[in-house]
Amino acid sequence: MKIAVIDYDIGNVKSILNALSNVGVESILTRDEEILLNSDGVVLPGVGAFSHGMDNLKKYNLIDIINNYIATNKPFLGICLGMQLLLEKSEEFGLSKGLGIINGTVKKLIVKHPDYQNLPHVSWNELHPHSIPWEETILDGVKTASDVYFVHSYVAQVENNNNILSCTTYSDNTFCSAVKKDNVYGVQFHPEKSGDIGLHIIKKFVNICDSIRNKGI
Q1: Which of 130, 142, 114 is nearest to 166 (CA)?
Q2: Which structural domain, as residue segments, surrounds residue 181?
Q3: Which residues have a catalytic role annotated?
Q4: How far apart are CA 30 and CA 40, in angstroms?
Q5: Residue 97: helix, strand or coil by DSSP?
Q6: Do 184 and 193 touch, CB atoms closer than 8 A?
Q7: d(CA 54, CA 62)
Q8: Would you say 194 and 201 are in contact if contact means Cβ atoms under 8 Å apart?
Q9: Rounded CA gap, 135 and 165, in Å?
Q10: Other CB atoms within 10 A of residue 211 CB
Q11: Which helix (H) or strand (E) holds 62?
Q12: Number of structural domains in the chain
């Protein structure tokens, strides 16, 4: 089994590759269409600005490849900016069009409490269930209120509650911290930097990939 991590010159992906290695799976950093489409799972990483991320996906002709891969029904995981790019659009530095896989808009995280004025939101914070049961998802086996690591200033405002896998509260703002739509997952946090809980989540993604592969999809 092989997991592909999309290479589009956004962010340091070494920690993601290391995390995949730590859970015992072969991974490759690539933008090659054939390798991506034939992988058992694909990860879209990313840090930085939404518009820059989309520009690089266009630059490397990856948008159609991502859509074609998702159409195979094999598992796909967006991490941090990679999750935000799944949405229709972002208001970061002006309006930018996203991949449109999940309905919603990326907006700035609003904090009003005087003790929580700093952005980006850089901290360990809790995951709580929302609309989707965690069983048989990447959060299967994760305990409610488990801490994971966040670094972000913008959040996904998802239109369909049935796409929200978990939520997290910072100051007085509760935001979507994980999404799921069919075979597509996204997490706002960094599982590769979230210790044992993060490795557990990555392992669950790998297990889902393996299960789908064994079904011949």
Answers
A1: 130
A2: 2-214
A3: 80, 190, 192
A4: 14
A5: strand
A6: no
A7: 10
A8: yes
A9: 11
A10: 13
A11: none
A12: 1
| Sign, CA torsion 206/143/187/104 | positive
168 is written with which tokens? 């997290």
Neighbours of 147 (CB within 10 A): 16
How many angstroms separate the CA atoms of 23 and 178, rounded?
A: 21
Per-residue confidence in pLDDT tens, the chain, 217 aa: 999 999 999 977 999 999 999 999 999 999 999 999 999 999 999 988 999 999 999 999 999 999 999 999 999 999 999 999 999 999 998 899 999 999 999 999 877 665 655 778 888 999 999 989 999 999 999 999 999 999 989 999 999 999 999 999 987 789 999 999 999 999 999 999 999 999 999 999 999 999 998 887 6
Contact 198, 192 (CB under 8 A): yes
CA–CA separation, 118 and 212 (whole Å): 42
CB 144 within 8 A of CB 129: yes
Say what the alpha-carbon torsion angle 90, 144, 151, 58 is, to the nearest 10 degrees: -40
- pTM of this prediction exceeds 0.85: yes
Give me 79's structure tokens.
């991490």
In terms of Cα–Cα distance, which of 60, 7, 61 is closest to 29?
A: 7
Which CATH number do you get for residue 79? 3.40.50.880
Helix (H) or strand (E) holding 16: helix 14-22
Q: Pull the structure tokens for residue 154.
A: 């913008």
